[in-house]
């Protein structure tokens, strides 16, 4: 044993540990997901996602003000529409809930970075992320609808569009549509490696987006595959993505690391609803400490290589870090 090599010297006090810490979290790392609904004075807690809410426009404005005061400068916005139909037409209406929310938030908080999730699942009556015909998702028919949604979000004032549908070619179609309509400065955060995961349950409850028939395994990625993730990301990069994303995060840290090692673009990771809800449930039982477990999870996501963490703990994490 070489007693001249004593790694514990650098762990002997809090000050030393902080000085040599390799991975640090800050408010600048986080994006907070928010769910906006029609109506007034609505702040309804989502039962499967404690401390997260369905918010009407007036309450959304108050929530954003609170987040900015904490130092959180970016949100990703999900909308719950007034009506649904087979093609999800409420998703691209100028008076749609997301479009109204973006216009209001940009007027009140021009410094806020607004990312809009782009998908059809909340807006279709069948709950799938694309056009459904004879029980199958029609990839190419879906692309034009996604482009219409992207354009409507850009026209409302969104800073970045985040397509989450996993249709082939959607980044290229969205980029082309934005560019042709004078929105070359609007970025695309692509859900590039989005897996067919069991961790999405609470989100589907929050967004009212569970598929009415079948599942999403024909377009979301197989959880057993990692090389495929690199192929998917490479395609999105070639098609014009500005930021790439891995979703979920906690069970896919290896994918985050591979993406970080192989692509020189900003990398986002989505710490999804099931990951959040499991910790919340265990903490409520008194089995674990939510603060320490949540911060450990978020640190592991950043340590794996994520530059951006989309998380329902964003506001809590900042408060904990400031204690």
From TrEMBL:
Top-rank lineage group of the source organism: Bacteria
SUPFAM superfamilies: Aldolase
EC numbers on record: 4.2.1.24
Keywords, comma-separated and alphabetical: Heme biosynthesis, Lyase, Magnesium, Metal-binding, Porphyrin biosynthesis, Zinc
Keyword S-adenosyl-L-methionine appears in the UniProt entry: no
GO cellular component, one term: cytosol
Annotated residues for binding of 5-aminolevulinate 1: 204, 216
Binding site for 5-aminolevulinate 2: 273, 312
Gene3D superfamilies cross-referenced by the UniProt entry: Aldolase class I
Sites where the protein binds Mg(2+): 232
MF-aspect GO terms: porphobilinogen synthase activity; zinc ion binding
Pathway stated in the Swiss-Prot or TrEMBL entry: Porphyrin-containing compound metabolism; protoporphyrin-IX biosynthesis; coproporphyrinogen-III from 5-aminolevulinate: step 1/4
Enzyme active site: 194, 247
Cofactor(s) for this UniProt protein: Zn(2+)
Class in the EC hierarchy, top level: lyase
InterPro entries found in the cross-reference section: ALAD, ALAD_AS, Aldolase_TIM
Reaction(s) catalysed (UniProt annotation): 2 5-aminolevulinate = porphobilinogen + 2 H2O + H(+)
Entry's transmembrane regions: none
Binding site for Zn(2+): 119, 121, 129
GO biological-process terms attached to the record: protoporphyrinogen IX biosynthetic process
Subunit architecture: Homooctamer.
Family: Belongs to the ALAD family.
Role played: Catalyzes an early step in the biosynthesis of tetrapyrroles. Binds two molecules of 5-aminolevulinate per subunit, each at a distinct site, and catalyzes their condensation to form porphobilinogen.
Protein's name according to its UniProt entry: Delta-aminolevulinic acid dehydratase
């Amino acid at each position: 044993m070489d007693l001249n090599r004593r790694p514990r010297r650098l762990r002997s006090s809090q000050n030393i540990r902080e000085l040599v810490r390799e991975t640090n979290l800050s408010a600048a790392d986080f994006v907070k997901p928010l769910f906006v609904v029609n109506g007034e004075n609505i702040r309804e807690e989502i039962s499967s996602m404690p401390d997260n809410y369905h918010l009407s426009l007036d309450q959304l404005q108050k929530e954003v003000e609170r987040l900015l005061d904490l130092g959180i400068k970016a949100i990703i916005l999900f909308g719950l529409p007034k009506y649904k139909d087979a093609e999800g037409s409420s998703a691209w209406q100028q008076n749609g809930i997301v479009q109204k929310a973006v216009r209001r938030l940009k007027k009140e908080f021009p410094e806020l970075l607004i990312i809009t999730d782009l998908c059809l699942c909340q807006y279709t009556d069948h709950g799938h992320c694309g056009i459904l015909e004879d029980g199958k998702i029609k990839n190419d028919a879906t692309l034009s609808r996604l482009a219409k949604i992207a354009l409507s979000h850009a026209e409302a004032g969104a800073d970045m569009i985040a397509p989450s549908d996993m249709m082939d070619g959607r980044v290229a179609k969205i980029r082309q549509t934005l560019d042709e309509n004078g929105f070359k400065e609007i970025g695309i955060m692509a859900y590039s490696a989005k897996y067919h995961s069991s961790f999405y349950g609470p989100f589907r409850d929050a967004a009212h987006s569970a598929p009415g028939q079948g599942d999403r395994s024909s377009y979301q990625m197989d959880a057993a595959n990692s090389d495929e993730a690199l192929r998917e990301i490479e395609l999105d990069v070639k098609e014009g993505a500005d930021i790439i994303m891995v979703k979920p995060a906690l069970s896919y840290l290896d994918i985050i690391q591979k993406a970080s090692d192989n692509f020189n673009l900003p990398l986002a990771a989505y710490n999804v609803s099931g990951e959040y809800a499991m910790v919340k449930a265990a903490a409520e039982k008194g089995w674990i400490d939510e603060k320490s477990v949540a911060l450990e999870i978020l640190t592991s996501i950043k340590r794996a290589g994520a530059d951006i963490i989309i998380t329902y703990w964003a506001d809590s994490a900042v408060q904990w870090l400031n204690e």
